[in-house]
Structures are given as structure tokens and as C-alpha cells.
Amino acid sequence: MKVLWSHFLPMVLCGACGPNHLGSAGSESLAESNPTHLGGCILSAPLGVVPADPYEEGDVLATDEYPPFTKKLTVYGLTLVAQDDASDEFMRKVATAIKEIFPRDEDLDLEMQAEILRNLYRYRALIPVPVGRDVDYAAIDKVAWDRITRENSVCDIIMEGVEGQVMEVVEHILHYVSDIGLHYTFPNGWGISETSALAQAMQKSVAEGYYNVEQYADIGPSEVRQRVLLQEFAYWIISTAWNLQEPYGPQGEDEWTIKNQADLKATLPQFYEVYERTVGRTMVTPSLETLRSIGPTRAEERNP
Question: What is the dihedral of CA 96, 99, 100, 103, to 10 degrees?
Fold first, then answer.
């Protein structure tokens, strides 16, 4: 399902855009093919308003700002939007996970952390929260959906009520954080480009068989595919460093073969150093209590 939504949204956004090939300019070439959005979904210009306190947290509110969505919840620069069938409780659980990923812990670099959140505000990170897999928002109101994708960074969704619920939440929070927050805060390390440390580590992982990207081969335009590959790779890196893959990750799949922090550090030591200087200094895994409130482990799903 992540393949579908990782490139369906940009296809709606790009409309009649034809295939374009990335050049050596990295992010600049992404912008040339679609000057308003990088990689099909990331706003190129900062259109959002940053509050004085980037750690602002709201509650679920009725809204007419984002039709066809009827309610929203904004926390730490990420705005969740949903229709009436989505539960307020689930939206609040997602918000709790976001807050726990960015704790104001004195042992972290809080200025770097706050800059990540500011960038989420600047580039208007907007996350649809559908119930199940009924997600064809363009069919409801194409004009309204086109406006949403034009004026915001809409890079994926968080589905409520699906198998693998914990990683459905964690993965798609991380897609937004890496695509927008990390991309703009640490462009050399986490940039959506061909030259960032993230891209170089991804190329090594593909070449050496740690990251199987065959399922993404049909995604086009090519700049969208590059962004999808990088956001998925960033998710694998961070969730593995947090030791979440073994209890909560997919079972019996071969997209990613590194399953825990120790193996990640041994296999990709250079990029693990980048991780430690950036994500390791600004973000932490959500608490076990919050993860349990969101859903079961994979083993518990299979053996209830």
C-alpha cells in the first residue's frame, strides 16, 4: 500500500507532468521539472507561518480549510486532517507519537530539533488520515484536492484500522519528517537529492543487497521515484536504529534486510555516524506505552 500512496499523490499533484530525469544538480533538477514541489510533493518555497513556539500542540478541531476533510489536529508543525469517520482518539494517539519523537530533553540539541519543526511549518506538512483504504479524495472533489496538494506538502497518508497499525503510524510520520524537516534542516545529510549522504548510503545499500527497490521500478516521473526511494530508505534507517523493525516491522518481506541497530551500525557505519549527529541528536523513538496504545506487535497480530 505504501507504494501506491507514495506515488499516487504526486501523480495527482503533477497532473500532466511528463517524465523527467534527474541530473547531477540533485535537488535543483527536481525543482526544474516542477518548480512548486520537489519530488512531486515537497513544497519548494516556504508558504507556511511559523509560530513563536514551534512546539505548539492543538486538539482535534472542526475545520473547513481543507475540504473534503472536516477536522484537523496540528502538533509540532504536522497537521493531521480527516473526515468525520476517523476517530478523534486515533488522531490524538498519532499526535502523542509525534510529540514523543521530539522530546524537549536537555541531552538533545534542542535548537536543531526546533528547526526541524519550523521547517514542517514553513513547508506546510499535511497528513490525511483516512479510515482503511478508501482514499480517493480526488474523486470526491478534484478541485479541492488539487488545491490541497498545490498549497501543502502532502507526501503520504496514515490509515486508521489496518494491519501493522504501529508502523503505519511511525513510518508515515517519518516520511514527512525526512522529506520535509530533515531535508531542509540537514540538506547535506538527508537531502532529497542525488548527492546527499542519504542518497549515497542508499546507493550502497541497493548495490550490496540490503535494500531491494524492485517494487518501485514502475514509479514515474523519475524525480518522484527518487524521492520515494529516499523517503522509504530514511524510514528503514531510522526505524531500524530505533530497534522497531524486529517487533513491529513486516514479516517475510525482502525490501530491507537489516533488522536492528547493531547490524545497521556494522553494515553502514559511515551513514550511521550521520544519523547519530543529526537524528540521534534531535529525535527518539515513541514510548512503548504509546506504541502499545496504537496497536499490537506483528507476532501478537498473527497469534492473538
Answer: -160
- Mind listing the pLDDT tens digit for each residue in 288-302? 999 999 999 999 988
Question: How many other C-beta atoms lie within 10 A of the C-beta of residue 23?
Answer: 13
Please state, rounded to an integer, the average pLDDT across all residues of the chain.
89
pLDDT in tens, 8-32: 454 433 332 322 222 222 333 334 4
- Between 220 and 204, residue with greater pLDDT: 204
